[in-house]
Specification:
The protein is built from 12 helices and 41 strands. With about 725 residues, it is an alpha+beta fold. The protein has a domain of about 110 residues: Alpha/Beta hydrolase fold, catalytic domain (Rossmann fold).
Amino acid sequence: MRKIAFSLSLPMFVATMLPGTLHAEETEISAEKDNMTEKLKAPVAEKRPHSFTHHGITIEDPWHWLKDQSYPKIDDEDVLAYLKEENAYFEAHMKAQKPLVDELFEEMKGRIKENDSTVPQKDGDWLYWSEFEEGGQYRKHYRKPAAGGDAKLILDENKLAEGKNYFRLGVLSISPDGRLMAYAYDDNGSERFELHVRDLWKEQDLPDVIPGTLSNVVWTSDSKGFVYGLANKNWRTDNARYHKLGTDPAEDIEIYKEENDGYRVGVGLSAQEDWIILATGDNVTSEVYLIPAADPTAKPLLVKEEKAGVQYSVDVRDGEVWVHTNDTHVNFRIAKASIDNPGDWKTVIAGSDEHYLTGLSIFKDFFVVEGRVDGLDQVDMHDYATGKRTQRIAFPEASYDAGLSNNPEYAADKLRLSYESMVTPDTVYDYHLADGRLETLKVQEIPSGYDASQYETERLMITARDGVQVPVSVLYKKGFRKDGSQPLHLYAYGAYGYAVPPGFSTSRFSLVDRGFAYAIAHIRGGDDLGYQWYLDGKLRKRTNTFNDFVDVGKGLIEKGFTSNGKLTASGGSAGGELMGAVKNQAPELFGAVVAHVPFVDVLNTMLDESLPLTPGEWPEWGNPITSKEDFEYIRSYSPYDQVKAQDYPPMLYTGGLNDPRVTYWEPAKMVAKLRDMKTDDNLLLMKINMGAGHGGKSGRWNRVYETAEEQAFILWQLGMAERN
């Protein structure tokens, strides 16, 4: 049993104008089709002299002041005034589009089952699931005895979120004896979680409260305490601590402290629940320790000392350590070792150029290897004695997203799977190992109706400028004309080895039903075609990612899917960096671009090692502090540094004031510089969520509304605000 229902993952937006010290230039913006006759003033952030020199190169940055110098506290009146002025400008322009936003919102909402629930899953003596009530923003979590009995509400996120502008549940973890529940939440978007413990039998919270956590929670075998991690002042989890219930958290025992500023510490539990697995590392290097779950203060057992560029993760079964690592092959291998000599790894499944091994899961009678062949997900069962594959699950479509779902029990005779494609709604299966049968447990319901036969999907290969073939997944409605006359929306991420799956999204159909094709570019920087695909889009190969996206856009135009000016694009975070780079490189392609929480001030961020993520990000982007070559290369593509005097497409930027991952000043500085330098009259808007973080507003309907705003902006700028 893995007693974690879900947890944090560690790897990785005012209605009145305020004057302040800002000024505004009178930019004439034609409010077409919105019956507005007045001219709106575009906010313009004041230029204030600021420069810095690195490696003999001096950089002028007159909008440096938009970074509040007391960060993470944000109280600079000039900064807040500018952000509020931008928000007011956004609201003033979007006011006339509100009927369209509302129309889109109701469409999207109509495709979401309001009183939805997850499929119950057995974990020990209990069945666990969660539900949304009709109209509810957040989930309710339930359980009932597996042997039969009444359901009991164990956590109501809606109640916890009452009176709050933001709420996100980060951890929910049940103790081995089933009596206690640890849960942690963030109520301002800063990703500093407050941890609580509830006695489920007495239905009351214990006095144990720990603020400032940023980690998973792993219970000890006796259910008398747990291991967790605190965020330090730089929002990095550099520790693992043991809390014994009933004691002062200030006296918790630090069982591990990481000295490398770029590393983060995470904790988990082995399949047999006898070992706490403590992992430390960054995006490319890892080191793992094992601690007895019955004795959390015992000296951690090192599995294998870190080696730069080597990643590994482990599980333990009957005295053997099972390892998933890239030490001998870029696409990883599976190995094992004795617990007595955990670093002596013997290959069980060798690395392969064709089969990219993405994960290992241990069960009592078999182990599961997840991976990709030609970019398509595979789930394979293997025999412990021989290591050979015994079963591969066959999936019905040529392009899809599939994998293991929630499988908490060690002794399993069936596996919970999730499956979807761009035309197939999210489907939950149980795969029965005895006969290889897929049992459908739930298919995502579309209350307003959905007919898959009305849509088509393709997987294309587009040739990039260096000859590499880039996969693209495309969705469109039947009857779509490939004569360049229709619009296409292109999406990608392209960083950290994250592959954007060709999955199902109900919100896309608001564009597709209005004549758009929707495409996902599987560009380098993700690991869609293997780990090397990721390596070929990072560090000194980072520009491959941007070039791939531009070349995919041009390739789709050549194939008649759309034409210049009818191509729109969006991306968030590192995908927002992508948006910044591609509109600098090829602005003529796009009819509208949306960049969410965009990582666009890359050079300045990578030079500031006091920021939460920076030291751990150097293996991904390079270290411009120590390397002049890295400095010059990052500067050559950093979207903020490469803004130039040219025409740009209509653009919408978003951010979160409390975002610790991509700070609010990145989109703010980018928009300020664009307003100063761009040579067109196209609309440029920015929306900063003043009480949220990296994920935008919390609550399912708030998030849907923001998606409706994005699509309304795109349709408006393409002259499609009114349906034919």
